[in-house]
Amino acid sequence: MASCPVAESEIEEEIKLGSYGGKVRVLRHDEESAAEETMLLWGMQQPTFSKPNSFVSHSSLQLNLDACGHCLSILQSPSSLGTPGVTGSVMWDSGVVLGKFLEHAVDSGLLLLHGKKVTELGSGCGLVGCIAALLGAEVTLTDLPDRLRLLKKNIETNLRHGNVRGSAVVKELVWGDDPDQDLIDPFPDYELFKS
């Protein structure tokens, strides 16, 4: 059986993503959005009947990940998972995907983080905030009081070198309490994407 000819415009182009070298399909400007590319990356790692967390093992004490030209070492506390409601003591696939998406979006010119004020709610182990700071954002990472020790340790470990384009601070934030004024003033700039 002969195959149908494929128009040149329909040929999918794949590029190497970030410093880890994963291949992703390049979206053309006439396609839907970068969200499709993120889901494609996640889907390539998620077979239909896979484990819920394929990138990160909750039993390991540390996750090593290349991002923004740095080898990040994120400490985890798997023993804390036994406490009801505690999920911020380990990394989740969604954090890895979001961090790599930010890196790719900035590298490809789709997103500008340099000089932007970013507040991360429920930062957990701090991977996404670390990557945003490496990409030039002024990041405030927040979480509950009992999660701050691990979060601070990860920020100090991964951003102590002088090659950070942005900055990162850790603050306590309990949902339902009034936030510190510096978290909301000046009002966030929602125009992160270039037009």
UniProtKB/TrEMBL annotation:
Pfam families to which the protein is assigned, alphabetical: Methyltransf_16
Residues making up the signal peptide according to the UniProt record: none
PANTHER family per record: HEPATOCELLULAR CARCINOMA-ASSOCIATED ANTIGEN (PTHR14614), RIBOSOMAL LYSINE N-METHYLTRANSFERASE 5 (PTHR14614:SF109)
Protein name: PROTEIN-LYSINE N-METHYLTRANSFERASE EFM6
Organism annotation: Salix koriyanagi
